Structure formats: C-alpha cells, structure tokens
Amino acid sequence: MSPQRRPSARATLRRMTAPDLNMLVTLDALLAEGSVAGAARRLRLSPSAMSRALARLREATGDPLLVRAGRGLVPTPRALDLRDRVRLLVQEAEAALRPAENLDVSRLARTFTLRTSDGFVESYGAALLTLVAAEAPGVRIRFLAKPDKDSGPLRDGSVDLETGVVSVGSGPELRTQALFHDRFIGVVRPGHPLAAGGITAERFAAGRHVLVSRRGDDRGLVDEALDRLGLRRDVVATVGGFAAALALVRGTDLIVSVPDRHTEGLRAGLHGFALPFPAPEVTVSLIWHPRLDADPAHRWLRGCVRKVCASPPGAERRE
Fold first, then answer.
1. Which residues of the chain have pLDDT under 70?
2. Do 210 and 238 touch, CB atoms closer than 8 A?
3. Could you tell me which CATH number the domain at 9-97 has?
4. Which of 106, 138, 110, 141 is nearest to 126 (CA)?
5. What would be the CATH architecture of the domain defined by 182-282?
6. How far apart, in Å, are the Cα atoms of 260 and each of 119, 190, 242, 313?
7. Computed from CA positions of residues 68, 72, 76, 78, in that sequence, does the dihedral angle turn out positive or negative?
8. pLDDT at 280
9. Do domains 105-160+293-318 and 182-282 have the same CATH topology?
10. At residue 156, what are phi and psi to the nearest 5 degrees?
11. What values do phi and psi take at 8, rounded to 5?
12. How large a percentage of the chain has pLDDT more than 90?
C-alpha cells in the first residue's frame, strides 16, 4: 500500500489563510466579461493587474476558471457552476452597503417587542397602538413586562426597545433618549385621612406605606427624601410593580408614592396629592441597542413612542 500523500505547504497555507472577499468582485467581472481585458475595463484596472488577479483566483479555487480557446477564453465547468452564485453574492453585498431606501411604513410587516413597566402600557399603550395602526397596519407590537434592568434582552435581540429609568449599571454601549421627566406623588383611597385636610411631612411619614421595588428593597427615593428631614416612614409591604401597589391601596389605608405621569391610567378612582416635601424626580427614557440605531423601521418606531409621550397621558380625553 502506498503511503498517503501529505498536502503541500502551499495547499496547507491556502487552507489556513482567510479568503480575500474582494476576489469575488473580480471573479464576477471575469465570468461576466469572459476576457481579462473586458474585466479590467469594467473594474478600471490595468490588464496586467487583472491577469495577476486571475492567477490568484486560480490558486484559491484550484481551477483554471478561464482557458484559451482560439483567440478568446472560455469558462471551465467549475466557472460555470460558480457564475450565478458569485453574481448573487456580489449583488447582495452591494445591496447591504447601499444607503437605506426610504421606508414605506404603510407596507411594513414586522413585529416589535417592547419591554416596559405596567404603568407605561396602561398610560401610553393604547395611544401607541392607535398611532401604529394608522401609519403601519402591518406592524404588531408585543409588550413584555420589565421585571428588572437587565440589558441582556436588548443585546441578544429578543427585545427591540425598552422604556424606563436608566441605571448606573446599564450597558455603556446602549443608546438612550429621554422621553419625559416625572415627579413622585402620594396616592391613597378615597376617604383616607390624607385625602382631606393639610398634609405635612410628619402626617405623611406617620402613615403605613407600600413600596414599589422590582428588587424587593425596603427603601426607595422617598425614604431618602424623608431622611433629609429627619423622618422615617413605616413600609409594611413591598411589591414589584405600580399596578399591584395601587391595587393594595384601593382596599386598605396604605399610602403609596408613585411617578405621576407614569401611573395616571392606573390611578383612576384614587386620590393623588403632592408630596409635602421636595419630591423625587425621575427621567423615563427610551433604551435600545446600537445595532438598531440606523434601522429605518426602528427609527420610525422610536418616533412613534416619542410622539405619544410628548403630551401627558389622557390629554386627548380631557379635551
């Protein structure tokens, strides 16, 4: 039995070296023109440069590709097999590098996933869906709950867009844009002692409170504001969302402090009041991954969210 032939050093090097993808454009021109001179004119190269490029292509593919027949060149079977595939690859590459065309949102068919708080959906979801339906009836919106500030779903593409308060731990590569500023207010059930009469910081702190914290903390921004006044409130319950907190308030004498604009729809039938001390403020922002920054459809969606958040929720109903 004859020993197995070892690959030559040149063949080994060819396998180890990453292919030069620019050669696809050269190969496309050679196969389309059927001549070195024609391909050179097409790519604005000298005939000698094109001859050298053909030599590199022959070495890379292990095939002569174009062979002499009379005064011209004819493609080999391998070249004929490659011609349509190479043409398609080059066309796709050119399309990928071409500036994006104007988006016709009326013909857009796409599902976007938004991760938001329950308060955002309650206050702005209906207006967003109405606007989207009017401009792009083929678009669907999937709302997901936002149980934490983990930016992983934005990175892995399972979420297209988020709303929320940007935290220090948010990924530095994420894009953000402020939507609106919000101020905390107090909320109680109708008939609660704080629903009538003057409210002082002491009266507020003396009540029993429910705290909203996705992480289960027992202190928040309101507690920090009370600390500066030398006061401490009694937090008897902690929940993960505004809807749950306001549901507890409806059936008890508990007090909750929530962002005003963010929870307007959730507070229907409850009594809201200005906090009797400098109220904490938050900035609610849009958050997305930079890979979608230039996507025309994503830019349109971000514009829709900004538009519905430009005025307080329920403004149309009050007109």
1. 1-19, 95-96, 98-101, 167-172, 311-319
2. yes
3. 1.10.10.10
4. 141
5. 3-Layer(aba) Sandwich (3.40)
6. 10, 17, 11, 10
7. positive
8. 82
9. yes
10. -85, 0
11. -70, 160
12. 45
pLDDT of residue 319: 37
Tokens for 226? 């009370």
Distances from the Cα of 215 to the Cα of 147, 161, 186, 219, 224, angstroms: 8, 21, 21, 11, 17
For domain 105-160+293-318, give the CATH superfamily: Periplasmic binding protein-like II (3.40.190.10)
pLDDT tens for each residue of 116-170:
987 788 889 999 999 999 999 999 999 998 877 777 888 888 899 999 888 655 5
End-to-end C-alpha distance for the chain, whole angstroms = 94
Q: Are 301 and 163 in contact (CB under 8 A)?
A: no
The tokens for 248 are: 């507890």
Listed by start position, the domains of the chain span: 9-97, 105-160+293-318, 182-282
15/30 Cα distance (integer angstroms): 23
